[in-house]
Structure formats: C-alpha cells, structure tokens
Amino acid sequence: MELLKNKIVEEGIVLSDTVLKVDTFLNHQMDPFLMQEMGKEFAAYFADAGITKVVTIESSGIAPAIMAALHLEVPMIFARKRKSLTLQDGLLTAKVYSFTKQEENEISIADKFISEDDTVLIIDDFLANGQAAFGLMELVKQANAKVAGIGIVIEKAFQDGGKQLREQGVNVYSLARVSSLADNKVTFATEQIE
Ligand code: G4P
Ligand code: NA
Ligand code: NA
C-alpha cells in the first residue's frame, strides 16, 4: 500500500537491524486518515471471505482493526493482555511469548463474543515472530470459529512469523512488507505474497 509505505519512509525511524519505530502514525500518535484507508484496504481484500467479526489485540491493533470492521460492517473485539494468570470463568485464553520483550502474557477474550458461527478476520499492527497472531488464532479455535485470514499493517519479512503462518495455510495479507532494516534503511519486499 503506497500511502503506508510513503509514511514509513518519511516518518519511520530504524532503531536497529530488527526494530522500526513508527510512533508518529501507528504506535503512539495515530493517523486517522491512514487508519481509515488501511481499514478500507483490509475490507476490500477480505470482502468475499464471509467475515462476521474482526479480532485484534490491545493496544496498537485496535485502530486498524476498528477501521477494517467499520468497512466490513461487523463488530470488532480486542483481546486483553495481562501478566497474572488469575483464573476467570467465561474467558477464552492463550499464552503469548514475546521474544522482543522476553515476557509471557496471557491474552483473553470473553467467550460470549465469539461463537462457532463466526468467521474471524485477525488484524494486528506488526507481524514479527507471529506469537500474537498464533495466540489470537488459538482464541478463535477455542471458540470453534473459523479464521478467514490475518491482516497486518507492517510485516517484518526477515522474521519468521509470516512464513510460519503461510506454511500452515493461513491467508496473511500485509499492507507493507519490510525485507530489511540493515544500514539504517527500510527496504521493502518486492515480491507480492497474497
Ligand atoms: P510477535 O507477536 O510477532 O511474535 O512479535 P513480538 O513479540 O516481537 O512483538 C512484541 C511487541 O512489539 C508487539 O507490540 C509488536 O507489535 C511490537 N513490535 C514487534 N516488532 C516491532 C517493530 O519493529 N517496531 C515496533 N514499533 N513494534 C514492534 P505490543 O507489545 O503488543 O504493544 P502494542 O503496541 O500493541 O501496545
Ligand atoms: Na505493537
Ligand atoms: Na500489536
């Protein structure tokens, strides 16, 4: 998506060979026009997939997810993250390990919000090692619902998540695929994976 790629080139800061800072439009300050356009793009791509719910994880996934849900005309649910493992009734839960932060979180969604009749589009801001995506897929699976696909704002194609998900047959649609952050430079993947 050109609008997003331009924004990344103009405002993204390469913090290291593996981390891209985009806090001017995605992770802290948010650009509502860009969010809206990204929501439209996700909705158009998954238009014929029979989506009934959009699911994301707090906090940075919420904005692109609500815009995708708006254009698909379905509800959006965000999984909550917390560290403690307090048992509670009525929750779908999964463990998500972050290699970046070296910590494990439990993520959860109230089970009343997803049922076996649902076809879910998962949305997230970044795809790195795919742990968040696998955790969200696990929640959907626990509800006996279907995953129609995953929409990602920025995929770091040099990390393993996208490859693992696609090898499992998951339809991953990323609006920007970054192939390298070496030499303080953002390089986009040229091949389109759809
Ligand atoms: P994974 O789910 O793909 O395995 O990713 P990982 O554990 O590495 O990601 C942990 C957090 O770091 C996630 O945000 C993820 O979106 C974010 N992240 C990963 N790589 C980058 C990057 O290159 N740049 C930026 N800006 N963020 C990255 P989170 O902790 O869930 O926070 P939130 O922003 O959703 O609140
Ligand atoms: Na994030
Ligand atoms: Na996220």
TrEMBL record:
GO CC terms of this entry: cytoplasm
GO molecular function: xanthine phosphoribosyltransferase activity
Reaction(s) this enzyme catalyzes, per UniProt: XMP + diphosphate = xanthine + 5-phospho-alpha-D-ribose 1-diphosphate
Annotated positions binding 5-phospho-alpha-D-ribose 1-diphosphate: 128-132
Key word Plastid present: no
Record-listed xanthine binding positions: 20, 27, 156
Record InterPro entries: PRTase-like, PRTase_dom, Pur/Pyrimidine_PRTase, Xanthine_PRibTrfase
NCBIfam families, per database record: PRK09219.1, XPRTase
PANTHER family (alphabetical): HYPOXANTHINE/GUANINE PHOSPHORIBOSYLTRANSFERASE, XANTHINE PHOSPHORIBOSYLTRANSFERASE
The protein, known as: Xanthine phosphoribosyltransferase
Taxonomic lineage: Bacteria, Bacillati, Bacillota, Bacilli, Bacillales
